[in-house]
Amino acid sequence: MRRYWSLWRELFTLSWRRQRRHTAATLTAIALSTLAVPVCAVALRRAVDAIDGGHTSTAVMAAAVAALAYAVSLVLQDTAGLLRATTNDRLGRLELHPRIHRDISRVHGLEHLERTDFLDRMTIVRLGTGHVTMSLWNMVLAVSNVLKLVLAVLLLGTVTPWLGLLLVFAALPVWLDHVGQRRVRRVEVETSEDHRLHRRLAELAVSASAGKELRVSGTAEDVIRRQTTAWYAAMGPRARAQFVAGALKLVGWLVFIAAFVGALALITHRTVHGHGTVGDVVLAVTVAMSLRQTVASTVMSTTSTASARRVLDPYLWMREYTEREATRDQGEQTPPAALTDGISVENVSYAYPGTDRLALDGVSVTLPAGAVVAVVGEYGSGKTTLVKLLQKFYQTDSGRITVDGIDLSRLDTERWRDRSSAVFQDFGRFRTTFAETVGLGDLRHVNDRERIQRALGEVEADDLVRRLPNGLDTQLGRELGGLDLSEGQWQRTALARAAMRTDPLLFVLDEPTASLDAPSEQNIFEQHMARARHLGQRTGAITLIVSHRFSTVAGADHILVLDKGRLVESGTHEDLLALRGQYADLYRLQADAYAESAPATTEEEDA
Ligand SMILES: Nc1ncnc2c1ncn2[C@@H]1O[C@H](COP(=O)(O)OP(=O)(O)OP(=O)(O)O)[C@@H](O)[C@H]1O
C-alpha cells in the first residue's frame, strides 16, 4: 500500500507543478461537493426553525445559504466530473505517456521489448494509462465520499440515532445494483467470443482487402448470415442479464423508499410529540435523499481505487525494471575514430530471455576492418541475433565481442550506436515529410538538405524524389493526408536513411530488400558494396550483409554460414564452393531455381 501512496503523492506533485490551476480547481470542486449537502441541510433546518420562531432576518439569511449550497451542488454535478476528467487527461497524455515512453527508451538494449513478461505489462499500462492517473482522483474522491457519509450520519444522529439505520437501507440498492452489474459483466465475458465474431464479420463485410475475396467467392450473403447469428448469440444473454440487473435495482430502490417513508413517519411522530423541530424534519429529509447517491459514489470510488491495482502493479513493476536496466553499466569507452583490426567474436553464445534454445552457439569469427561480410543461413539460424549482439541490443550470455581489441561491453552504448548504421528487414515507415523520413537516419542532420540529397543519391533514389508532387517536402502517409509509397519505395527511403551517417564503423544490411525480386536486390547490394568499399577505405568500416539469397552476396569478402546458431562454414565464395558443403549445395539450389523463374522477374519493383 505504501507504494501506491508514494505513487499518488508523486502524481499529485506532478499535476500540481504542471497544471496548478486545473488541479486547484478540481480539488476545490471536490471539497465544495463534500460540503454542499450538509451545509444545505443545516441551513434549511435553521431557516425553517427561524420561520417557526418568527426570526425573519435569520430565516432569510439561512435560506440564502441553503439556496447557494444547493446551487453549488447542482453546478458541481455537471462540472466536477468534467474538470476531473480534463485534469486527469492532461496529466495522462502530457506527462505520464511521455514518461512511460521515455522510461522504455532509456533502456539501451532490446531485451525488454521481446520479453513476454515486460510486453504483457506494457500493453496493460499503455491501454490503461488513464487508470493510473485516475486512481489518484478516485482515491481523493473516495476520501471525500467517506467524509460525506460521516457528515450525513452525524447530522442524522442530531435528530435521532435511529436514523443512522437509513445508511443500511441506502446501501441495499447499491449492493443489489452491484450484484446485477457483476452478472452483466460475467455474461459479457461469456459471450465475448460471439461478440468479437460479430464485430470481425462486420469489419470483414466493409473492408476493401476482404471485399475482393468476398466478391470473387460469392460468400457475402453467408458472412451476413453468420454476422446475424453471432449478434443474437451475444446479445440475447446480454439483454436478459441487463433485465435481471434492472429488476434487482428496482427491488433495492423499493426497499429504500419504504425505509425512507418509515423514517419520515418516525421524525414526524417525534416532532408532533415535541421531541424535535420542523427544521429537524427538513434536515433529515434533505440528508436522507442524498444518502443513496453518497453510498453509491463511495462504493464506486473505493472499488475503482482498489481495482486500479490491475494497472498500478504492472506500471510500478515496469518502472522498477526500466530504472534498474537503464542504470546498468553501459560502458564508458569511446569507439575508435577508425577501425584498424576489426571486430572479433569470441566463442559467443546467446539464448533469448525465457527460452532455453541457444540462438547463437559458441560462434567465433573475426570480421576484418574494411571488409564486406555476408551472413547467410536458413530461417532462424541466428543471423539477426548476431547483428543485434554486434549493435549491443543484447549482452552475450558467454564469450565476448571486441572492437579493435576493446570489449564491446565497455564501449559506451550510445557512442557505439552513433558509429553504426543499419537497415533492417522490418525497417520503419515514418509518416513525416519525405526529407525527414530520410534525415532521421542522423538526427543531428535531419534538416540538412544537402546531406539528405547526397544520401538519396547514394541509393539511386533521386528519381523517386523527382516524381513526388512536392519533392522532398512531400508529406508521407495517407492517414495524414499524404502520399503512400510502394514497398520498394519505402525500402529505398530506409536505405537512404542508413546512408545519412557518413562515418559508421559498422554498417548493417539485414535483409532490407527481402520483398524485392532477386535482380533488384542484386542491384541494391551492388550499390552498397561500392559504398562499403568506400567506407572501408575511409574508416575501416565493416559492412555486414544478411541475406537468404546466396547469389546476392557472392561478391562479399567473407561469407559466414550459420546453421541452428552455429557457424558451420566461413570463407570467400570460391572457398565455400570448393568446400562443397552446405553453402555450395544451397547456392546451386537457389541458382537453379532462379534460372527457372528469371524471365518472370526482371523489372525492379519500384521502377
Ligand atoms: N525475440 C525473440 N525471442 C525468443 N526467440 C527468438 C527471438 N528472436 C529470435 N528468436 C529465435 O532465435 C533463433 C534465431 O533467430 P534469428 O532471428 O537470429 O534468426 P535469423 O537467421 O535471422 O532468421 P530469419 O532469416 O528468419 O530472419 C530462432 O530460433 C528464433 O526463433
From TrEMBL:
One of its GO terms (molecular function) is ABC-type oligopeptide transporter activity. Gene3D superfamilies: ABC transporter type 1, transmembrane domain (1.20.1560.10), P-loop containing nucleotide triphosphate hydrolases (3.40.50.300). The keyword Nuclease does not apply. Pfam families: ABC_tran. It is a multi-pass membrane protein. It is found in: Cell membrane. The keyword Coiled coil does not apply. The chain crosses the membrane at residues 59-76, 124-143, 149-176, 243-267. Residues 343-589 form the ABC transporter domain. Residues 24-307 form the ABC transmembrane type-1 domain. One of its GO terms (cellular component) is plasma membrane. Keywords: ATP-binding, Membrane, Nucleotide-binding, Transmembrane, Transmembrane helix. InterPro entries: AAA+_ATPase (IPR003593), ABC1_TM_dom (IPR011527), ABC1_TM_sf (IPR036640), ABC_transporter-like_ATP-bd (IPR003439), P-loop_NTPase (IPR027417), Type_1_exporter (IPR039421). Its main location: membrane. This is ABC transporter ATP-binding protein. It comes from Streptomyces sedi. The lineage of its organism: Bacteria, Bacillati, Actinomycetota, Actinomycetes, Kitasatosporales.
